[in-house]
Fold:
Amino acid sequence: MTSLTHLQRLEAESIQIMREVVAETENPVMLYSVGKDSAVMLHLARKAFAPSPPPFPLLHVDTRWKFRAMYDFRDNMAEEIGMDLLVHINPEGIEKDINPFTHGSAIHTDVMKTEGLKQALDKYGFDAAFGGARRDEEKSRAKERIFSFRTAQHRWDPKNQRPELWKLYNTRKNGKESIRVFPISNWTELDIWQYIYLQNIPIVPLYYAAERPVVERDGALIMVDDERMPLEPGEVPMMRKVRFRTLGCYPLTGAVESEADTLPAIIQEMLLTKTSERQGRVIDSDSAASMEKKKQEGYF
Amino acid sequence: MNIKHLSPEKLNERRMQAVKLRLDGVTVALASQQTGLSAPTVSAAWKSFREGGWSAVPVRPRGRLKGQANVLDTATQQRLWEALYAHPPAEQPGWSSADLAAFLRNEHGVELTQRGIEHWWESEGLKHEPWPLSALAKQRSQRGRWYRQAVAPRFDRLEEANQRWQGGVRRVVHPQRPVYQLYLHGPRGRMWMRCFKRPPVADDYLTAMQALIGKSEESNRPVALVFHGAWLSASPQVTAWLSQQTMFWLVPVPADMGLAS
Structure:
């Protein structure tokens, strides 16, 4: 018997989790944020159920503030793979024109992402939602189980989690409860990049270093992606060679200066880095324990 | 015979060998032939041996030893930095090495050559080489096409070298201070620069561009600037200023043209 590589073991674990969810739940959905983790999740899902397409739709909770390249990539991807792509935008957010600049990152995230996600799950009646969170991203994600149970109000109780010994998952839930499932929880950022490279998985070009117009905001390099980005008086965006380690709403996502414009170069950079990719997310530094607080309230 | 390509170690080996041959009674001409050294070199090695023994035969190492280079003292470096962060001399688009040398001499009584200042630029990461733009003219690449379509039509209309400028803005990674550098290359690749502790704003760019226009106003000739590193058209202030200029042509370098260093 040949032994599996660590990536093959992670892949097998993720595929097993996906099949388990499809077998045990009635109406699953895969959250699709268009980032690299979503790209890997989608690839794993297609592998898990090949030759059929995955038996669940994709759900993108849109905030209207993602990078333009992400929207282009999302639309092309949905067309190419032939899966149902549901896009939900919180109508209240549209009505009140919630945005990161005038309302701040906390309110924007709460209304457009957390509330938007809860609305979408309720609207379609999904009882299980796959997410691409990983333990190495952030400390509250590190302690969350692979099968993370949510109350009828989508709240998470970190002190009431089920044991997952020997990869045995208890999927029983009460009527209105739902499950957030994280098949790539045990992967690291480096695993993701190696897998993308080995499997030749398409990703948004923003992950590759290129000259992009950026401005500095509180030490973060924010890309000026469209005309909605307000510039300070006299401010002129600089063209700097940057890439993104994580992708979210563009005004809240910091770029890193990098020369890595190929996958091997990105992997090499990953081998040397000592910081989490989430350091580039403004929303993670809102306040102490903010991610855990957001997760308790229903954030992905 | 040219021995300039030889390392000091190799040269010394051959000098020792030449002396041994001479000791064995070999003529200068034959020793020269066998070692590959010139006859005067063989004679010089032989003379050194006779005057100082074996220890006198090797040549002295070339150049300065490590650590013996002229290093600017901290106070002078501080003055240079302060100057670079301040406004350049009137009517100049930035600080040139000549301006800095004059500043040190006039304001602080410090004598420093332009070459010394340029070496200091290099050690601080401030030196920027001009792009070989004219070499792009015949390139069958994206850069070549861009040069032929965007740069050549302007540059070809300018007769004098001091009408053709290139420059840009970049962040210099420095261990002790924040450095955003606005640099310009004029005739014969001469460099002007100004440094900032924060990204330059529209006024900073306009001051530099205005100085370029000022340089050409004497001759009433237009100026073209190929510029990299800033998205100037995103600034209403810069756009408005540019729209009023008839003697100034700005040619932005597109992203990922591979010209930045």
The radius of gyration of chain B is 27 Å. DSSP finds nine helices and five strands in chain B.
